[in-house]
Every structure is written in C-alpha cells, then in structure tokens.
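Input structure tokens:
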C-alpha cells in the first residue's frame, strides 16, 4: 500500500514537469518561427525568390545596400554598393560579357562619359555569373583590346544584381536616378553622349 500511495502522491509533480516542458518547447518553437520570418524579410535574395525589376520600380533597400564584388585588375578586390553612389544623378548599370563584341565596343564611350560627368554619373560594368567569365579572360580582353587595365568599376562575378533584372540579352543598360528609381532599360543605341547629357540636365 505504501508503494502505491507514494506513486499517487508523486503523480501531480510529474504532470507539472510535463506541462512546464511542453510550455518551454512551445515558446522556443514560436521564437524560432518568428526569427525565420525576420531573416526571410531581411534578406530576400538569399531565398532565390525576387521580383523582376522594371522601368518605374524603385531599387529595393536590400539591393541598394548589398555589398557587390568589385574587381578591377589582378590587385584590386573589394566590395561596393549602389548606395556608395547615391549622390550621382545617374547610375548606369551595363550588363556585359567579355565575348560580346557589341558590349566591348561601347566601353570607350562609357569611359569618356564617366570622365566628363564624374560628379554626376557612375557607370558600373556588371558581369553576370551565368556568362561564366573569369578574371584571366577579362584582364586578357582588356589588355588585347584596350592595352590597359579596366578603368570603370566592374561588378564581378555578379550573383545578385542580374537576378533582380533577369536580363536576357546583352548589352543592356539600366538607368537609375538619384532617388533609386529605374528610369529606363535600353540597348546600346540609346546610350549616347547626347542622351546622357539630356538625362543629367533634366535631373535637378
């Protein structure tokens, strides 16, 4: 009788411990779920699900402040962000590849425009990862074609920017104003000294 009485008196304590354990597990699960939702909201690109940006859209804050791989020659490696150039009237993203002759033929004009409008314009050469370029190929192309190392900033290898724009043909140029709004997405023919001057003149 004593044995069964002892079991009976301990039963409520056991139930209490079980209840506490279940409560703790519930709280931890809720906190973990909340953290997962917060992480997803903070870094949408990491999930692989991003909405295609087009004319009239504003660059998302995540992309605006995202560190991008900046490569210019064999000794320069760092990161840059679009926000680094938020004082410019125009950020021009040039999507290109080293095997695209049309892309390469536009570089001298872009370099000239950058030097002329250095306080108002920033050209970024975006080399998307899917084109499978390599540092050696890019540097070799510059040496052979231009007899110099790259002058304009190169985003390479780009694994993020092209995912937001989902560019299907190169070269393509994305025109972003000082408010972060996409004003145009064009081919090479629309990028001229006159069109750049007109854009900068109209951006007060």
């Amino acid at each position: 009788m004593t044995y069964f009485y002892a079991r009976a008196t301990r039963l409520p304590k056991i139930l209490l411990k079980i209840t506490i354990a279940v409560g703790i597990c519930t709280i931890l699960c809720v906190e973990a779920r909340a953290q997962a939702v917060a992480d997803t909201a903070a870094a949408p690109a990491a999930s692989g699900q991003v909405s295609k940006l087009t004319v009239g859209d504003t660059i998302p804050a995540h992309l605006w402040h995202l560190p991008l791989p900046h490569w210019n020659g064999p000794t320069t490696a760092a990161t840059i962000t679009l926000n680094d150039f938020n004082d410019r009237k125009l950020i021009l993203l040039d999507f290109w590849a080293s095997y695209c002759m049309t892309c390469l033929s536009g570089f001298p004009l872009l370099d000239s425009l950058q030097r002329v409008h250095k306080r108002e314009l920033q050209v970024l050469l975006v080399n998307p990862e899917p084109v499978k370029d390599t540092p050696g190929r890019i540097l070799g192309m510059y040496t052979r074609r231009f007899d110099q190392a790259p002058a304009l900033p190169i985003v390479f290898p780009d694994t993020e920017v092209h995912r937001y724009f989902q560019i299907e043909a190169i070269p393509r140029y994305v025109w972003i104003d000082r408010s972060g709004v996409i004003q145009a997405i064009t081919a090479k023919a629309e990028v001229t000294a006159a069109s750049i001057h007109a854009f900068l003149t109209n951006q007060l």
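Residues 1-11, 14-43 have pLDDT under 50 and may be disordered. The helical segments are 2-42, 61-64, 101-105, 107-116, 135-146, 161-165, 193-202.
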